[in-house]
Amino acid sequence: MYSLVFYVPETHLEIVKEAVFAAGAGKIGEYEACCWQVKGQGQFRPSDMANPFIGQSGLLEAVDEYRVEMVLLKEFKDAVVRALKLSHPYEEVAYHFIAIES
């Protein structure tokens, strides 16, 4: 089992969550669409080669985003990553997995 952590702007929060839920994430026993989320602020500076969804190349940008966490079984990992990347507005999606022993 894994915990998926990703960051997403508020404008796309529900779209991205629904996509990864549909791909198999967020199921705990008889419950589905389970996650934990908290609002924060991310920052980045796009390079001259980037095509940013928000901000301009070469300029530091701060964006209100959500950190979202949810569990998933190993068998759904590839499908969840595909869903995350396809539904997320950013050119480079910030995410990571944490292995869970239970």
TrEMBL record:
What superkingdom heads the lineage?
Bacteria
Name the UniProt record assigns to this protein: NGG1p interacting factor NIF3
Matching PANTHER family:
NGG1P INTERACTING FACTOR NIF3 (PTHR41774:SF1), PTHR41774
Note the InterPro entries from the entry. DUF34/NIF3_sf, N-reg_PII/ATP_PRibTrfase_C
